[in-house]
Amino acid sequence: MTSGEVTDKPTQSGRYQESSIDRLSSSEYKNSSTGTVDVASPAMTSKNLNRSKIQILIREYTEDLAAGLLHPISYLLYDRKFNTDLIYVIPNKIGTETLRLALITYIRERTEQPSWSNENLQVRPRKRPSDD
């Protein structure tokens, strides 16, 4: 292997050869914590896919703003506290920080009834056909 060449195949010992990223005197790719990286135990990337209602709504609202959707914008999310679907309505164009603060206020102020509203956010339970 020439200097600076990158390989994605391990050697017979199961360790990676020197890469252009980390040139070392030995032929092993060294990790700062363990010394080497074996094929049997590759470094992993992890992501937390559990998102809160606030994170979900802000992400969706940001994407909808970028897409130029007209207001009011409605979102439907299940709420475990009330054991029902809730409709979140944003009646006017607001910033994401304003939405975040409105959602935090709603979560702090909600009681036994899921219905709530202020000038930036309205929350109400979804009516099901069986509720009529």
Describe the structure.
The chain has 132 residues and is of the alpha+beta class. It folds into 2 domains: 44 residues, no CATH class; 75 residues, no CATH class. Helix content is 22%, strand content 15%. It is built from 2 helices and 4 strands. A 4-stranded antiparallel beta sheet has the order 1-2-4-3, covered by helices on one side. A hairpin with a 4-residue loop joins β1 and β2. It is globular and about 50 Å long. The N terminus is likely disordered.
Keywords:
alpha+beta; 2 domains; 4-stranded antiparallel sheet; about 20% helix; globular; disordered N terminus
Gross morphology is globular
| Low-confidence spans | 3-7, 16-30, 37-41
Please count the beta strands (DSSP E, at least 2 residues each).
4
Query: How would you classify the helix and strand content by structural class?
Result: alpha+beta
Strand order of the largest sheet: 1-2-4-3
Order of helices and strands: HEEHEE
Please describe the biggest sheet, giving its number of strands, its sense, and whether it closes into a barrel: 4 strands, antiparallel
Separation of termini? 75 Å
**Total of DSSP H or I helical runs spanning 4+ residues:** 2
